[in-house]
Prior knowledge:
2 copies of one chain form a homodimer.
Chain A: H1 9-16, H2 22-28, H3 34-41, H4 45-52, H5 62-75, H6 81-88, E1 93-98, H7 106-119, E2 123-128, H8 136-145, E3 150-153, H9 161-168, E4 173-177, E5 186-190, H10 192-206, E6 211-215, H11 221-236, E7 246-248, H12 254-266, E8 273-276, H13 279-291, E9 301-303, E10 320-322, H14 325-341, E11 349-352, E12 355-357
Parallel strand pairs in A: 1-2, 1-3, 3-4, 4-5, 5-11, 6-7, 6-8, 8-9
Antiparallel strand pairs in A: 10-12
Helix pairs in contact in A: 3-4, 3-5, 7-14, 10-11, 12-13
Amino acid sequence: MQPGRRHSPAESVALFGYSLTPMILRMLKTRANIKDVASRAGVHPSTVSRVLNPATRSMVSESLAREIVRIADELGYRRNALASGLRTRRTFTVGVIIPDLTNPVFPPIVRGVEHTLDGEGYIAILADSGSKRRSEKALIENMTARQVDGLILAAANRKDPLVDQVIEQGIPLVLVNRTVDKHNVTAVINDDELGIDLAVGHLVGLGHRQIAYIGGPQRTSTGYARYRAFLKTAKKAGIKLDRDLIINAREFTETAGQAAFHELIKTGKHFTAVLSANDLLALGCYDALEELGLRCPEDISVTGFNDMPYVDRFAPPLTTLHIPHDELGVQAATLLLERIENPDTPTKQLRLEPRLIVRGSTAVPSA
Amino acid sequence: MQPGRRHSPAESVALFGYSLTPMILRMLKTRANIKDVASRAGVHPSTVSRVLNPATRSMVSESLAREIVRIADELGYRRNALASGLRTRRTFTVGVIIPDLTNPVFPPIVRGVEHTLDGEGYIAILADSGSKRRSEKALIENMTARQVDGLILAAANRKDPLVDQVIEQGIPLVLVNRTVDKHNVTAVINDDELGIDLAVGHLVGLGHRQIAYIGGPQRTSTGYARYRAFLKTAKKAGIKLDRDLIINAREFTETAGQAAFHELIKTGKHFTAVLSANDLLALGCYDALEELGLRCPEDISVTGFNDMPYVDRFAPPLTTLHIPHDELGVQAATLLLERIENPDTPTKQLRLEPRLIVRGSTAVPSA
Lengths: 367, 367
């Protein structure tokens, strides 16, 4: 066969499953090719490839790497990450799916993920599964069609067929913030039980005995674990639980918290504090308190969970559990890179400990 | 040539610039191929391709599209977006670069971008150029290596060689929030002059005459336009400007705002209000006021710009200019899709009008 001879479309389809048009040939054969760079540098093309891929550059001596980059620049050779993905089965792309980008707790987690990936030559494709218009399933399919090397999901449910599917497909996966009930996937989460224990201890220490609880959706591990922890630690602390004063909201949102607080008031039962399963629910309590002409903390103390950015500035500043946002992201990305390198890495669960931050939304109960 | 015959590596390199190994052949020739689906459906493969690509599905009748999707599912055929990108030169991927994901003004803009792209079958690769470790240049190179169909930049400088470079490379580009001095690129920005005019009008209306200004970096269009607008509208309002009370900070951050406020105090000059060029700078003023034992608005009124989420909850709630975050994102994505479809679309600048939101951080000056 003569170099440069084109296949007929039929031949191409037989070989590759699709037609190799002249356009593709032009695309694949960019200005200078890797062999031109290699021959000028007096090295094997694979060395050039290693140098031009941020993830493998460290395998080549620094001075040689610099020289190769110089020659590649001079010849106008540019790595085509797409063709590269087809060659190496690596796209150096990780999909990150979060449930709600506008929940301020997620941007710092995403930032931790991004910076860790970036240090290894990977890039994140970020998507928000929050809106009703886009299902998480479609997003995951879109990402796997783009051959992501791995996925980080912050939006998992406790029973999650999508997680099962990703695992079955053999795509490296790490869950962050939320996990599944089955212990078959690596996850970086918070120690929810410790967090709730600290919050209950704080309220009891201030003298609260009638403590209401606004929880999150029980389909999520955070919603479920925090609810279970509340039942357990309240009992341990010797406070009598009133089932009417325990409401699990359907969403971790401000609106849901607001509605739940109004429900608590409607029971007509006495309570002096509300322990909320996240900061947005606590903000909803603030809204309801204002609507009802009640003051926080004078009439009702309120606690949150997450210490999302800026809650220290709220009126009143929110007493909450600080979770290490950046570290959640860093650890999730690190564990994912480990799985990408070595898919046989045993799954593990990393639990980071929250810290209680006492601010102005809690005080001794009014007489 | 026999169907199925492999090229020698030398032939492949001559043709494609790299060696076609058996692995690539396996990758490209997945289980069922597009021809299998087409023949079962009795249509041309290009019809199957159109149906399986969300961006072109509407070109095929709904009932036929449904039938083709059913057959593809049955045969286990899945579009390989990567190979698809090589075929069509479209990856249905858009790069979005923002200067700081943890600045709460950006998530709602990104959400607007994402949801608009999603509706058209595109996905966003999001990256944060904020940290010193990653330069915007490297991010753009990474994204263009991944053959993004277009870029949305929220981090442009007024003079920006990177923007010039992207334009030269012919990559569809839309700037959002910030623009460049040259009018050679499509941008969706805020009407900064109107915003500052509204803020000055509000403070003057309250009786303020000694108004200090904390601006942003002059390398950004927002920093520069807001500064110029302040000089102009203050003059128009008949208030005497004191150059010592005008400070342009190097970054749009809380820390920079805090430092600038301390500088204002150090001048020993009298002022009753600070107009800040964004909300983070205003927050920095809050910090400095607290450190100095001063009260807002009793001692000093403060205004911001952006109305980022939650500033209505701050102590005190911030008087600021509301910008339509979601709409900025929606418009940027819409204009980018337009450019991708038709690269010859004339460049345009879309200016959205901010609205003044008066809250608790401004009051009549103390006697």
